[in-house]
Amino acid sequence: MQNFFLHPSLRTKPLGSECVGPVQKILPACRSSGITIIWLNWGVLNQDLPLLPPSHTRVFHEDGLSGIGSKISTRWGRLLMHGSRNAALYPPLQEEFHKGLEMGTDHWVNKNRMSGLWGRSTELAHFLESRDISALIFAGVGADQSIPGTFVDAYSRGYDCVMLKDAVIRNNGEPNTQPVNYNAGMSYGFVTDTTRLLESLRQS
Known about the structure:
Elements: H1 3-6, H2 20-32, E1 37-42, H3 54-59, E2 71-73, E3 77-78, H4 91-103, E4 106-111, H5 123-130, E5 135-141, H6 146-156, E6 160-169, H7 178-188, E7 190-192, H8 194-203
Parallel strand pairs: 1-4, 5-6, 6-7
Antiparallel strand pairs: 2-3
Helix pairs in contact: 2-4, 2-8
Protein name: Isochorismatase hydrolase
Keywords: Hydrolase
InterPro entries: Isochorismatase-like_dom (IPR000868), Isochorismatase-like_hydrls (IPR050272), Isochorismatase-like_sf (IPR036380)
């Protein structure tokens, strides 16, 4: 849910921002219930660039860009590189992150592939293992790419995975996430929504 995908200065139609509200709605209750909040985001390092698969250049080849690491502008920095402004969270969520950071409930985790759990070892894998986390709830932008990629890899590693269907949207803002939700619920885990999650947290 980074600026590159949601900020109106970088997207002519940042419709993916429609999932910002549902995410904001559940954060206070999740924090109060002791749920760890993980902001999993692109944060590519210079040493990662030679190791990225060629498909990443194609996927992020648009509007004059030539793949991850290419310069967007002086203001926004290099595409999805760690520490760049375009890789920061969309402003309303950046505020949420800092709020949770002060509370000790929120954590930033970088990734350099669509999936945060690809291969033998990733920053996300280390984080989850170090805290003995066994269940994951998914929300955010990337219902056609990043979210199902991490969801399936998490399932394959033995995590219990839950998709929040009203807090997940495709990168281009299209609401049709039915195939993703179907596969999540039928094969790889469970599907619910933010209303039912909040009800469950109130009862626990």
